[in-house]
Design goal:
The protein has 3 domains: 2-100, no CATH class; 105-269 and 304-352, 3-Layer(aba) Sandwich (Rossmann fold), CATH 3.40.50; 280-295 and 393-525, no CATH class. Helices cover 40% and strands 16% of the residues. The chain contains 16 helices and 13 strands. The strands form 2 sheets. An 11-stranded mixed sheet has the order 3-4-1-2-6-5-9-10-11-12-13, sandwiched between helices. Strands 7-8 form a two-stranded antiparallel ribbon. Helix 6 (222-230) links the parallel strand 5 and strand 6. Helix 1 packs parallel to helix 3 (52-67), helix 6 (222-230) crosses helix 15 (470-490) and helix 10 (306-328) packs across helix 11. The relative contact order is 0.10. Residues 268-282 have low confidence and may be disordered.
């Protein structure tokens, strides 16, 4: 497949050169044109969308040759030069696109274990007719497990997407107004996970329950979750049907993102946040007074669209249902004996974006959960605004300094809107429970696999993955997550010690918020 991927631009470039320098070699020109067309069309049919542009040149060249066979090659005609120049430009463009969105092999996990994977479905018959399914159909959660595998050599590496997954995710993203076809080539990329490989036995592995972001798909953090599994964790990645671009079940049935969600995401949301106020060093008390008065708005809780509040409640319930089944041993486990080799008393909840908000909310009300990780998510739980969480929590956020409308907020010592969550303002930074980390140079998409598939400055700008290299972004996030979770589930490392080796990771405390809150309380009492 990779040969086909790179052959397309090369053939088109060669076609263009022949048109300019050897148009008289009509037989060779026709042969190359037909071959270029066939290769480009075949690649496009197989989901390699990068070949579509090059295919236009091949078809144009072939059509001109068939139509004007006798006239081609006589003299150095302008039309011949134009066709040649067009093919060369399209060939160079295709080559650039291939480099920017390549068939990149995923990075190998760095832990001591191979990684197995297994998909299964948890059915919740207490809820039905939800999120785009029929009124009597129960809620079905697709779960993808990543786990330390004992021997993977007889097994085949799992593709990033199956053909059906690529089709349905593309369909879901198209409904969102995105260019879904840009992900179609990912089904030709192999992961470092192996379907139904046997789990390592003889020890009980701690558990991570993970949710990806809103409108994503279950495999959108495959690199990160494979890394966690290779370091000795069983990771259960949860789907949330109707809110994700697409969920494809083992029986080939599927649910794409619902029309209600698509409509909701398409509406401009009122952004009356305090971060849009003009900065003024003399008005810090005004800024924080407004923050206190309308702190829920600042965290996008109260003014978030209604469908997001509804989805947050559903995702919380999804996670609780799965945890209950996990602890009771009521999981489909016929192919891989996961339950016998996990420790349900050692659990961390984590997630990216919307899934990160849900992870903290569930862990806060789950007495067994040891810690929570919110990876670049906002907070949609009003009970956690200006309130201290029950358990250790990592808030890992992208670089908000790149957003002009955050300048005022940052001028008052606040890093991002989630700073007022997870601890009481008056004791922020003193509870020892919340760790806040900002990653300089990274944007929201940097935390998903999108950062690995976007190469070059232009691609990173279009996909909004920040200015760090894909290798650096992946390594940075993986290192922080593995170390933080190790520190709470294995107690083998001290989390704060790694920051001397991570110059792009800024460990911080919103001290200005605490200072204002203390002064305000003193004024009241």
């Amino acid at each position: 497949m990779e040969a086909l991927f790179w052959a397309t631009p090369m053939l088109i470039l060669f076609t263009g050169l022949l048109w300019i320098f050897r148009p008289s070699a009509r037989q060779h020109l026709l042969l190359i044109s037909v071959l270029a067309s066939a290769v480009a069309l075949s690649a496009s049919f197989l989901g390699l969308w990068q070949a579509v542009i090059a295919g236009f040149c091949g078809l144009l060249s072939t059509a001109v040759l068939f139509t004007f066979w006798k006239r081609v090659g006589h003299g150095r005609g302008v039309v011949q030069s134009i066709i040649g120049a067009t093919c060369i430009m399209l060939g160079v463009l295709t080559l650039f696109i291939n480099i920017s969105a390549p068939l990149s092999h995923l990075p190998s996990p760095t832990g001591p274990f191979f990684v197995g994977t297994s998909d299964f479905v948890v059915v919740d018959r207490t809820r039905s007719g939800m999120k785009g399914v029929g009124g009597s159909e129960p809620r079905k959660l697709l779960i993808r497990a990543y786990y330390p595998a004992d021997n993977v050599f007889p097994y085949q590496a799992k593709a990033y997407f199956s053909r059906l997954e690529a089709k349905q995710v593309t369909r879901g993203e198209n409904r969102l107004g995105e260019l879904g076809f840009l992900n179609s080539h990912l089904r030709h990329i192999a992961t470092h996970t192996y379907d139904h490989a046997p789990i390592v036995t003889g020890q009980k592995f701690p558990i991570i329950v993970f949710s990806n972001g809103f409108s994503s798909h279950i495999g959108s953090t495959t690199i990160l979750l494979s890394e966690l599994a290779s370091n000795g964790y069983v990771v259960f990645s949860l789907s949330h049907p109707g809110d994700m671009s697409a969920v494809v079940y083992p029986d080939k049935s599927s649910v794409t993102i619902t029309g209600k969600v698509v409509e909701g995401l398409g509406k401009p949301n009122v952004n009356r946040g305090l971060e849009t106020q003009e900065a003024s060093p003399q008005q810090d008390h005004v800024f924080f007074e407004n923050l206190w008065r309308d702190t829920e708005q600042f965290n996008w809780v109260r003014h978030a669209p209604a469908f997001l509040h509804e989805s947050h409640s559903i995702w919380v319930k999804d996670t609780q249902v799965f945890l209950k089944r996990l602890r009771s041993g009521d999981l489909p486990d016929s192919k891989v004996n996961l339950l016998a080799n996990t420790d349900p008393t050692h659990i961390v909840l984590a997630g990216t974006s919307f899934g990160g908000s849900v992870a903290v909310s569930v862990c806060h009300i789950d007495s067994v959960c040891r810690a929570a990780v919110n990876i670049d998510g906002s907070n949609f739980d009003s009970s956690l605004v200006n309130n201290t969480v029950r358990m250790p929590t990592l808030s890992l956020q992208h670089d908000f300094s790149v957003h002009p409308n955050m300048a005022t907020m940052r001028s008052f010592g606040m890093r991002n809107p989630i700073d007022t969550s997870y601890e009481k303002n008056i004791s922020v930074g003193d509870t020892g429970l919340v760790t806040r980390v900002e990653l300089r140079g990274m944007l929201h998409q940097s935390f998903s696999d999108s950062t690995w598939f976007s190469r070059g400055a232009l691609a990173r700008k279009l996909i909004k993955t920040g200015n760090l290299s894909p290798q650096h972004s992946v390594s940075l996030v993986s290192n922080i997550l593995v170390t933080y979770i190790d520190s709470h589930l294995k107690e083998t490392v001290k989390f704060s010690e790694i920051f001397n080796e991570l110059p792009n990771a800024n460990l911080y405390t919103p001290a200005a918020l605490q200072k204002w809150a203390v002064e305000r309380q003193n004024q009241i009492y």
